[in-house]
């Protein structure tokens, strides 16, 4: 739904924030979704596909639909020998302890059921000296617009993402409490684009606009009015409509990198 924003973040931190990935690496794309990190790794290090010793990517997610989608991509691109997919909750990894060299959790931690458990499982799975990357959003305009729209329409007072998750320091503390030895944080710019505001609100509102209890016939009658309200809130949050009609918005991610002790 948010386009290339997550893979853009992954490409940048692979280039600027993470030690080089070499032959024999054991990589975990944790909460992989449709495989943004997996794709970014293989774009950045295509030689891993034929490296010796062999590198492996474990791409895991709790959503079977995401795994099924990624499996199709893996097969179509001939990555089967390297990329291993599996439905797996981030709070209960079936990966062996002390084996993963690089663990990536792109936009996962703030939506997890038990974030401290995710951090603990990440540390457990890492090899000594291994590196973990967790990202959250420092700015996520469409989520702020969604919160205000839902508050007006449904009287909700709970945010789509809790405020503390917009701060890198919250993730840093989580990883420190889990036992990571060294932690750094930085910010990476990203963004998304859709062909029109109408296309964006059709997609976004169908995905995120459902009231508690499910859609009603009245919601269907009010569909266009509610989308228009959401569009207005998006514009207030910095969405820009270009001369070509495309809608664009700037986003910023927190990138927290942590190392397991030797």
Automatic annotation (TrEMBL):
InterPro entries: Methyltransf_11 (IPR013216), SAM-dependent_MTases_sf (IPR029063). The keyword Chaperone does not apply. Keywords: Methyltransferase, Transferase. Residues 29-133 form the Methyltransferase type domain. GO terms for biological process: methylation. Pfam families: Methyltransf_11. The keyword Methyltransferase applies. One of its GO terms (molecular function) is S-adenosylmethionine-dependent methyltransferase activity. This is S-adenosyl-L-methionine-dependent methyltransferase. It comes from Polyplosphaeria fusca.
């Amino acid at each position: 739904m948010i386009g290339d924003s997550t893979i853009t973040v992954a490409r940048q931190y692979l280039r600027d924030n993470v030690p080089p990935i070499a032959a024999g690496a054991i990589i975990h794309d944790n909460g992989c979704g449709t495989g943004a990190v997996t794709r970014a790794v293989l774009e950045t290090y295509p030689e891993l596909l034929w490296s010796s010793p062999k590198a492996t990517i474990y791409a895991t997610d709790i959503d079977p639909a995401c795994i099924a989608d990624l499996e199709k991509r893996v097969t179509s691109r001939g990555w089967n020998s390297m990329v291993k997919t599996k439905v797996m909750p981030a709070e209960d990894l079936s990966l062996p302890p002390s084996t993963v060299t690089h663990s990536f959790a792109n936009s996962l931690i703030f939506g997890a059921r038990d974030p401290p458990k995710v951090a603990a499982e990440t540390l457990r799975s890492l090899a000594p000296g291994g590196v973990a990357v967790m990202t959250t959003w420092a700015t996520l305009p469409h989520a702020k617009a969604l919160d205000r729209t839902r508050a007006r329409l449904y009287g909700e007072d709970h945010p789509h993402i809790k405020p503390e998750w917009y701060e890198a320091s919250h993730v840093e503390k989580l990883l420190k409490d889990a036992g990571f030895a060294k932690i750094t944080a930085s910010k990476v710019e990203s963004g998304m684009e859709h062909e029109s505001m109408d296309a964006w609100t059709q997609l976004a509102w169908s995905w995120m606009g459902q009231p508690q209890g499910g859609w009603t016939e009245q919601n269907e009658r009010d569909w266009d009015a509610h989308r228009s309200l959401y569009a207005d809130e998006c514009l207030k949050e910095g969405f820009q409509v270009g001369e070509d009609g495309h809608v664009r918005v700037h986003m910023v991610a927190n990138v927290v990198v942590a190392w397991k002790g030797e």
